[in-house]
Amino acid sequence: MFSTVTHTTTPDCEPSQFILPDLINDCHYPFRQNPHCDAACRASVRWLMDVAQIVEPEIRGHIDADVNGLAVACYPDADSFHLQVCSDFLNWLFITDDLMESGVVDVHEVHESCISAFRNPINFDTERLDAKMCKSILSRFKETAGPGCTERFIYTSGLYFAAVAKQVDHRAKGHVYDLESCIALRRDTGGLKPSFNLIEFAARIDLPDEVVSHPVVKALEDAANDHVCWHNDILSYNKEQSCGHAPWENIVPVIMHEQGLDLQGAMDYAGQMCKDAIQRFDSNRAILPSWGKEVDRQVAIYIKGLQHWMVGSLRWHFDCVRYAVPPDRIIKLLPKRPYIGKCGA
């Protein structure tokens, strides 16, 4: 599924710009934002300062990154309490992901401490800030989350840590991903599976095991996961190539390598993949089985939540300063600089 880098080649004439796919018009789902955004965002910033112990001037960078805005866009129906927990989790995810990717913290140590905090948020004793954040999140999560939702959240968080550890190890060994293995790993490194579990939490539902294990539901989750990861890769490509980010961890250079395409061709190809993911999502939603009136009601809420993630994340990327998408979608390539850790994702 992957090979080892033995040499690097550079085209004689690299492009100076590229045009982003028309991702917004390709995604036909309605976009809404949570009305509790201001109060929840203020509370989440206080949480970053009190629990994560992030102070000025670093806190300004986290506010400007607007991760809280991502929660507002992806959980539009959550009440203020549940929205803040979702915001806090996404902030933790972004912070921890950057620290693990840049090598500031050991992935395996973070995995062990955070999962322990998730398992026992009240009694687990730790001095690690990442684990303290987890204790804070899960202690509130468990106030309303059902047992199935809670177990799934912890399990998928473990999948995320395992995937990041694999990615860090592969990077150190110089492994190169093909498209199939890139897609498979990306479904876990993106942290979307536990983020999707928060849909249940925010809606106060707890889907039965026979629903979450059903192949059509799994296909819907994969389609939503793919769309979010791929539009993130498309929109973060410029920053990542500038930072010297490992190219095989973004779907655009993987497509260039595997399909023999130039940058614009790979962008167009990735844009079509996003359109195809939307079509997969719609096709599978049309063939959902029935589990009875009450369960069907909960399933409809969950599927709508996946849809909110697809369009919410996309709109957040386009509106967020960190991605700097111009109205004409023409992106000037940034100059390359040495790799100092994950950037732009």
> Which parts are unreliable, with pLDDT below 50 for 5 consecutive residues or more?
1-12
Q: What is the average of the pLDDT values?
A: 91
- Give the strand tally: 4
The quaternary state of the protein chains shown equals single chain
| Alpha carbon gap, first and last residue | 24 Å
How would you write the strand order of the largest sheet? 1-3
Topology pattern, helix = H, strand = E:
EEHHHHHHHHEHHHHHHHE
Helix proportion range = 55-70%
Strand content: under 5%
Instruction: Output the radius of gyration.
Output: 20 Å
Q: Which shape, going by the Cα principal axes?
A: globular
Main β-sheet, in a few words? Answer: 2 strands, antiparallel
Instruction: Look at the helices and sheets and give the structural class.
Output: mainly alpha
Number of helices: 15
